[in-house]
Amino acid sequence: MNEKVNQKQPRVLVVILNYRTYELTLELIKKLKNLSYDNYDVMVVDNCSPNESAEVLEKKSKELNLIFYANKKNAGYAAGNNIGIRYAYEHGYAYTWILNNDVIILSQNVLLHMIETIQKHKDVAVIGPKIITRDNAVCAPYCRRPTFRSLTYGIVAERNYRRRFNDTPRKAYRVYGCCMLLDTEKMHEVDYMDERTFLYGEEDILAERLLKKGYVAYYDPGVSVKHNESSTMKTVPKDKQKSIIETRDKSRELYLKEYRGFNSTQIGMVKFVADAIARIRG
User: Fold this and answer.
1) Residue 138 contacts residue 130 (beta carbons within 8 Å)
2) Does 257 reside within a domain?
3) How crowded is the C-beta side of 56, counted as CA atoms within 13 Å?
4) Which residue in 229, 205, 235 sits closest to 217, CA to CA?
5) Once rounded to an integer, what is the mean pLDDT over residues 64-75?
6) CATH number of the domain within which 124 lies
7) Mind listing the pLDDT tens digit for each residue in 203-230?
8) Does residue 28 lie within any of the structural domains?
9) Within a domain: 269
């Protein structure tokens, strides 16, 4: 556990989900030491990596003073991170910070700033910073709940609307899952993330679960991180592209059908527009 602890700061569990890329995970853990925040512990969940990740991270756990858990199967993003969130709840951590290992921290006060902000809003259950892509673009915040219009023929107008708020702190529909601070107690109330998703769509589904309990998300552009992930399919091997598309479609259908009540025609239209945009982007 962290040796330098400020007891006045809420306890935070940083959860890093690892799959194959243990080098990135170890590098991120080292960078966390530069945070302007003391009262946190780090938990690494290895999602059944097919390489030596689990062995390396378990050996490093004592040296780096981290909590390590080796998942027996690759259960995906939601289920993997739920292991950490449940651990945080069971061990009394006020907040859980979900952090992808390909995230680069640009503001050393990112954790402190998000905690100070979330504490000002009793109805906020999750908060996220400004996300910068590997191409140095800003990921526009999801300001309002999607509608059939905003997901289809109004999608361009909606994206232009979202960009207006890139630098505006505000309550939002949802934040980005690569870096989000969760109120642990509120996550327990909504029964955590939906583990039926493997990858993609988790943030939207979580938003709906939170809304049912009267909670919202918050966009905090006062601090930022860089998500060093490709924003297109160009860097993905062609043999994996089909699997990714199928996974996205499954998560989208779950969200739209079960959580939003869209009918099959509406779901088909949303898919058609999303696929067309994906083809244009390459």
Assistant:
1) yes
2) no
3) 15
4) 205
5) 94
6) 3.90.550.10
7) 999 999 999 999 999 999 999 999 998 5
8) yes
9) no
Task: Tell me how many domains the chain contains.
Answer: 1
Q: Are 111 and 232 in contact (CB under 8 A)?
A: no
Range of the domain at 97: 12-233
Average pLDDT of the chain is 93
| CA 87 – CA 45 distance, rounded (Å) | 11
The residue behind tokens 């739209």 is: 256
* Residue 143, pLDDT above cutoff 70: yes
What is the rounded distance in angstroms from the CA atom of residue 113 to the CA atom of residue 223?
Answer: 7
Distances (CA, A) of 247 to 78, 180, 251, 252: 13, 22, 6, 9
| φ and ψ of 20, to 5 deg | 75, -45
Confidence label for 233 from pLDDT (cuts 50, 70 and 90): very low
Residue 252 phi/psi, 5° resolution?
-65, -45
* 246: in domain: no
Q: Say how far apart CA 29 and CA 45 lie, in whole Å.
A: 13
Distance between CA atoms of residues 224 and 139, nearest Å: 11
